[in-house]
Amino acid sequence: MTETLKVAMPKGRIYKQASELFRRAGVPIPQDVDDTRKLVIPLPELGMEFIMAKPVDVPTYVEYGAADIGIVGKDVLLEENKDVYELLDLGIARCRMSVIALPDWQPGIRQRVATKYPNVASQYFREQGQQVEVIKLNGSIELAPLIGLADRIVDMVETGQTLRENGLVEQISILDITSRLIANRVSYRMKNGSIQALCDRLHQVIPTAVTNELVE
Ligand code: PRP
Q1: Which HAMAP family match (predicted)?
Q2: Residue-wise pLDDT tens digits, 81-99
Q3: Domains plus CATH for the chain?
Q4: Residue in 58, 78, 60, 74 with CA at minimum distance from that of residue 124
Q5: CA 97 to centroid of ligand 1, rounded, Å
Q6: What residues pair up with 154 in beta bridges, in sequence order?
Q7: Which of 125, 126, 145, 187 could form a disulfide with 130 if both were Cys (CB 3.0 to 4.6 A apart)?
Q8: 158 lines ligand 1 (CB under 6 A)
């Protein structure tokens, strides 16, 4: 009996790049999967089942073994800090995490920073020796400095369009971000053959592939 790999796929902007990468790697995901609203998609001909998850939840599904493997941005991986193996840098969804402010920003006594990534942001400012209050938001982070909720934000920059259109400036880029292939610790042992075979296929089509050390 062939085993089925349960794959947590991130819904939204990473999905398209991830499914294209799979296709380039010789895993022919049917085109209609890209447009479906179904959340669990059996792909028996590929020996897989896709679980369409909110990106921030992918590490949770993988940590608990509800999915064997998953695709997730390094930003989410760092923020969520789940007990999973990081197998492969897929080199897709490339962007950066930056500190962003209004152009006339001045350091004040009590600084507030809004972000979707409170753990990563807090650690960064701690390392910089800067005392800031971190405020967690869930989206449209650029709004915060525009309406006085925070002095600065820590957020993702891809094309820079959101910053430009809202008159904000990037002060410093703190992390380069790409999507990663992660695995459940038990699945990695129990389904090692099929996980390794997928890794090998993906590795061949990633231009600047970096096989990372497993995350402990
Ligand atoms: C992300 C990010 C920025 C924007 C950056 O938001 O938080 O707002 O994309 O992309 P750009 O540099 O190409 O403009 P997303 O669209 O994922 O939605 P969100 O605001 O709800 O987080």
Answers
A1: HisG_Short
A2: 999 999 999 999 999 999 9
A3: 5-94+178-203 (3.40.190.10), 95-176 (3.40.190.10)
A4: 78
A5: 11
A6: 99, 115
A7: 125
A8: yes
